[in-house]
Design goal:
single chain, 166 residues, alpha+beta, 5-stranded antiparallel sheet, 5 strands, elongated
Length: 166
Amino acid sequence: MKTVKLIALVLFLFASTTNHAQVSINVNFGTPPQWGPTGYSEVSYYYLPDVESYYDIRQEQFIFLSNGVWIRSHNLPNRYRNYNLYNGYKVVLNDYHGTRPYGHYKEHKVKYYKGYNGGHQENYRGASQHKNDNHENHNNESHDNHDNGNHDNGNKGNKGHKNGKH
């Protein structure tokens, strides 16, 4: 009889604790780069038509073809060292959450050809500067130069690349 009471007590305690259990799911999609388009909170990849490359937001890496192999790197290849990520169009791949967006490369390359532009995109750096301009400058001066002399091309400088190696 003591065994039955003990089992009943254990079941009661188990049942009472499971009623109060909470399940929490935290999905971290990473922080978009300053050159990324604003307005997308749950995106993992961008496709960059002008350089036929992808950008993995979570890993902060570019994905591009090099000698027929897909390479991941924190920088674009040297052949694109003058490419301005702030000005180039970014296709937001908000319908893909796997690890190999380049599985759809042939489709992306045709649909989003070099020079493709789907319309105006505001990047995070520009949005934050406009916000600061609106709060800090109340005397209606011109806001034409949001660059403030910073000519960073957004390519993380391709530092560390020597002799074209990645």
